[in-house]
Design brief:
With 403 residues, the protein is α+β, with helices and mostly antiparallel strands. Helices cover 26% and strands 24% of the residues. The protein is elongated.
């Protein structure tokens, strides 16, 4: 008895998935609840598990687009299909191969030898004696054989083979690759955001020396106590949560003709995963400590790299932080993560000369960018929010004390 494994419902808005990878191969023995394949939707990657133990019989192939409820494979009762019989072992005493002994030729020495007259005729005709079969005694070439012999027609020269075309340096080659559902969704959403929102970007810069000094002083004790490193993302998340208390519209969204304000902060962290950009969410970040935020960031980033994020971990979010600085970006204009109204862009840290108290000093500086929807956030609020984030980052004591 065999059962069919079908594409399960993976979300209300998802109607089809792509079979991205077979974890098990056709004919493999599988156990109950063992992962046999990976399915990819426009939002996440899902694991398909065996509903009974048995032998896997694949129906779909990698890359197929399957509607919800489509048959992916069958599982037959019993173990794996028997492997092909191995070649029979050789016996210890193998049959020795005997080199054939050249048999004594029965041909006479006269075979193929022309008579004097036949030889003269063949020479005049330009015919090679090896091309003439003798009919005389013991295969001797007779005069009659020579008269009948004809000089073989000259063989036509072989047509020159077509030259082999080899790729040269700088060749203009093209390579096409089908877009994944996730990449297609990202493309559609980015275009929609640009056309459906009044997006603007405001910039500022922050002196990272206070935070870097604080990290340098306590990072070892922090990791020893909490088991996780002290990064920049936790400081930025805490600064955002504090600033949103003063500028709640930055944490709001438009729903039809209403403005929806949130009294909590679910921070979406943009992560570059192998299959595209994903934005897992840190829920209720406003009530979390630096250590809790760092642990959440590490867990979500690891899941993103391994394509293990669930829909719940990527659904919602009230504000997004993206860090292009890890790739070397000095300044950019991040695109809003709809339906949110704002996104904060972090960039790389570069030592630059700045003026402090009338003196030129070198400090590790970072540019910050806040892209926002001008339909709900005014210029005063966007600039005020970014200035508040800057103040908190440049004075971590205020950040930790919440003042």
């Amino acid at each position: 008895m065999s059962i069919e494994i079908k594409v399960p419902p993976v979300g209300e808005s998802i109607t089809e998935v792509v079979l991205s990878r077979w974890v098990k191969n056709d004919g493999d023995a599988v156990e109950m609840d063992e992962v046999i394949a990976e399915l990819e939707s426009d939002k996440a990657t899902f694991e398909l598990t065996a509903e009974q133990a048995g032998t896997l019989r694949t129906v779909a192939v990698e890359g197929d687009t399957l509607p919800i409820g489509a048959v992916v494979c069958r599982i037959e009762e019993g173990g794996a299909a028997p492997a092909a019989a191995a070649p029979q072992e050789k016996t210890l005493v193998e049959e020795k191969s005997v080199s054939p002994v050249a048999e004594k030729s029965t041909d006479s020495y006269a075979a193929g030898t022309p008579s004097p007259s036949a030889g003269k005729i063949l020479a005049e005709k330009g015919v090679d004696t090896a091309a003439v079969k003798g009919t005389g005694v013991d295969g001797r070439i007779t005069k009659e054989d020579a008269l009948k012999a004809e000089k073989p027609a000259p063989q036509k020269a072989a047509a020159p083979s077509a030259p082999v075309v080899t790729a040269v340096a700088g060749a203009r080659n093209e390579r096409r690759q089908k877009m994944t559902p996730l990449r297609k969704t990202i493309a559609k959403r980015l275009v929609a955001v640009k056309s459906e929102t009044a997006m603007l970007t405001t910039f500022n810069e922050v002196n990272m020396k206070p935070i870097m000094d604080l990290r340098g002083k306590y990072k070892d004790k922090f990791k020893e106590k909490y088991g996780v490193g002290l990064g920049f993302m936790s400081f930025f998340s805490k600064a955002v949560c504090e600033a949103l208390k003063d500028f709640p519209s930055v944490n709001a969204r438009i729903d039809g003709e209403e403005l929806v304000f949130n009294d909590f902060v679910d921070i979406s962290i943009a992560v570059s995963a192998p299959k595209g950009l994903v934005v897992p969410i840190i829920r209720n970040a406003e009530s979390m400590s630096l250590a809790q935020i760092e642990k959440s960031v590490l867990e979500l980033a690891t899941k993103a790299r391994d394509s293990k994020l669930t829909l719940e971990e990527m659904t919602g979010g009230t504000f997004t932080i993206t860090n292009g600085g890890v790739f070397g970006s000095m300044m950019s204009t991040p695109i809003i993560n709809s339906p949110q109204s704002a996104i904060l862009g972090m960039h790389n840290i570069i030592e630059r000369p700045i003026a402090e108290k009338g003196e030129v000093v070198v400090r590790p500086m970072m540019y910050l960018a806040l892209s926002y929807d001008h339909r709900i956030i005014d210029g005063r609020e966007s600039v005020g929010f970014l200035v508040r984030v800057k103040e908190l980052l440049e004075d971590p004591a205020r950040l930790l004390l919440g003042i």
